[in-house]
Amino acid sequence: MDVDLFDFDLPSERIALRPVRPRDAARLLVADGADTPFVDRHVRDLPDLLRKGDVLVFNDTRVIPAQLEGRRGDARIGATLHKRLDLRRWQAFVRNAKRLREGDRIAFPADVVAIAEQRHDDGSWTLAFEGDEPVEVLLERAGQMPLPPYIAGKRATDENDRSDYQTMFAREDGAVAAPTASLHFTHELVSALDAAGVARETLTLHVGAGTFLPVKAQNTNEHRMHAEWGRIDAATADRLNAARAAGGRLIAVGTTSLRLLESAVAADGTICPFEGDTSIFITPGYRLRAVDGLMTNFHLPRSTLFMLVSALMGLDRMKAVYAHAIESEYRFYSYGDSSLLIP
Known about the structure:
Number of domains: 2
Main location: cytoplasm
EC number: 2.4.99.17
Strand order of the largest sheet: 2-1-17-16-14-3-12-13-15
Number of strands: 17
GO molecular function: S-adenosylmethionine:tRNA ribosyltransferase-isomerase activity
Strand content: 25-35%
CATH topology of the largest domain: QueA-like
Subcellular location: Cytoplasm
Order of helices and strands: EEHEEEEEEEEHHHEHEEHEHEEHHE
Enzyme class: transferase
CATH architecture of the largest domain: 3-Layer(aba) Sandwich
Helix content: 10-25%
Largest sheet: 9 strands, mixed
Number of helices: 9
């Protein structure tokens, strides 16, 4: 498909630079797949919008401070880690990479040093970190939270982002971008969902910085997604299948949860255990089998995530959803408002 089909005009003032407080006070645009009016609610209303027996599926990945600023000699080098390769080596997008050669040592703050080991065809680099301490420990000393460029380009990262850009479900270290739909949940909201009989399950997908990369191809067939590592264990898959068999709907909380579920689903709709890399790219024409709905924030024009929601709901319906959101002054992107999409 032509990428221009997924373009739309978004006023810059609609981009949220900070989250609302409390988190569940964010607005929630509710839309189904029919030509029915949209409903404007709040995230805290979810217990009234879902059914007993429904299951919310969360991503329990934890964002690591994967943004590094350092030097190679007199050259400033910026690195955003996006995929672990082994205990000491990460693949990274590098700023000012033209000043870097294989074998160069990059000095980051707090005596953290990495070797530029290999340049890849996509322009990214393998960085090998020196020392014996786990890389995650080094990042806690030297790194910053990797805010999306549409936020980081407008303000500096600060200490508030350490908590604001982390979900209450975060448990497994490895993401360099938050599963932002889950940022809206609070302990009070989870308790209300429990009381309403709405179940919850977790899976793990370590979101990479590739999620922020623009689609440079003119046709979606020519775009290649960066691989991300994910896991659904057998017990979780069994519970999800049982809930669906009993009539419950599986609602993915965030596009990351949806993409991993679709990577693990069989042709008959059965969700299977999964562990490994996925580079699934969902565009209109793809038939979703694993989910019955999606809760997600509002995404960038021409992005792979807007293509995904258009596959779920239909491109015309999603353009109408976004037009309503812009007109109604919803807040967009990672720290913005959310939507509940039931095709």
